[in-house]
Design brief:
Elements lengths: L15 H12 L32 H25 L2 H26 L4 H27 L4 E2 L12 H12 L7 H28 L5 H33 L9 H28 L12 H21 L2 H5 L5 E2 L29
Antiparallel strand pairs: 1-2
Helix pairs in contact: 2-3, 2-9, 3-4, 4-5, 4-6, 4-8, 6-7, 7-8, 8-9
Length: 359
């Protein structure tokens, strides 16, 4: 207890409640034993498991399985990314899988010693932030700034992957979208980066302060809430686009593969949204006093399983795998010629009016 401040904590301080709870919690522990924080010296030999932050010993088989599964997902995304040359999509997915693997490695450290502060710090930062990379892959897939149009010729290998996804979206008619694809890219990607930074910084500040700092918890909460809001905005805009598309005359151009892709994309986004909502609710009472944080079953289902299923959906619905056989070429200028279908051919009208096709 020598490292705790001896002065009285003002009740007006936003950290006062957490500080008092922490002092009471520490007072119930044996003298000269630090159960949580950079100076933690507890082990299972001298401390009861109920004194740890999670109040349980993380399952070794479950965490080892998640580490292996995300490793397998990473290998699949590397293979598909190289095959279809979807470099940005692959980079985001690899980053997310690596974060998950590091995080579950941290939880294995907590299995060996539930009081391991490095293990807790590693997993709280990486597992919390990993889904940001998966949402980044989704945003990049739908908002790459290159503009393509589709043709009846076979697809050249150099245009496989993410660029062909944009080709198909533009082919569906970008005019149906309420905002330009560039705006998707310029808004959602920076917002995703901000979410990652806030979640990582909040987790680091809160854990380094032994969970006493309300500021660290607030920073992490802002990052999670912002991610939820960004996902809701994305789902709303994307859902609006799809609704307008299906009300237009070009619905017949939707293939089975394209339907599969969009289904996987939507499901992955919704699952990540559900996971972020769970983490927001879990964190609202901080790391040391949250009831949800002590429930490993909820963590396995609402964190591990949902995020892993999302990574698989983004593998099954990989942009290169779905659209690799679509005729596609880049437009160098407005006068590009060839056997192409101009975007302006498709004109969107409200449902109550007749849909026209410009000649």
């Amino acid at each position: 207890m020598d490292d705790l401040p001896s002065n009285n904590v003002s009740s007006a301080s936003p950290d006062a409640g957490l500080m008092m709870d922490y002092m009471n919690y520490m007072a119930s522990q044996p003298p000269k034993v630090i159960v949580f924080g950079p100076g933690s010296n507890c082990t299972l030999e001298i401390c009861d498991i109920s004194w740890s932050v999670y109040k349980y010993r993380p399952s070794l088989p479950v965490n080892a399985a998640f580490l292996a599964l995300f490793g397998l997902a990473m290998v699949m995304h590397i293979y598909l990314g190289i095959r279809w040359r979807s470099w940005w999509f692959m980079a985001f997915m690899i980053s997310g899988c690596v974060f998950e693997m590091i995080g579950y490695g941290g939880r294995i450290m907590l299995y060996n010693n539930p009081f391991s502060f490095p293990g807790f710090l590693i997993q709280i930062i990486t597992i919390t932030g990993a889904p940001v990379f998966f949402t980044g892959a989704i945003y990049v897939t739908l908002s790459k700034t290159q503009v393509f149009s589709c043709s009846s010729i076979n697809l050249e290998r150099r245009l496989i992957g993410i660029f062909c996804m944009i080709c198909r979206i533009e082919h569906f008619s970008a005019a149906l979208s309420r905002i330009r694809p560039k705006l998707f890219y310029y808004f959602f990607i920076p917002a995703d980066i901000i979410c990652l930074v806030l979640q990582a910084a909040g987790g680091a500040v809160s854990t380094v302060s032994r969970g006493v700092s309300q500021r660290g918890i607030d920073i992490a909460m802002v990052g999670l809430i912002l991610q939820v809001l960004v996902l809701i905005a994305f789902i709303s805009l994307f859902g609006d686009y799809m609704a307008r598309y299906f009300r237009s005359q070009i619905t017949q151009r939707f293939t089975v593969r394209e339907t599969s892709f969009f289904t996987c994309l939507i499901l992955a986004t919704v699952l990540i949204l559900a996971r972020c909502s769970y983490r927001c609710y879990e964190l609202k009472e901080g790391y040391t006093h949250s009831e949800l944080i002590t429930n490993e079953s909820l963590f396995i289902v609402l964190e591990g399983a949902l995020v892993y299923i999302s990574s698989l959906l983004l593998c099954i619905g990989h942009p290169g795998l779905i659209f690799h056989d679509t005729g596609c070429e880049k437009l160098e200028d407005d006068d590009a010629s060839g056997d192409q279908i101009p975007l302006e051919q498709f004109v969107y009208r409200e449902p109550e009016t007749e849909i026209g096709v410009a000649k």
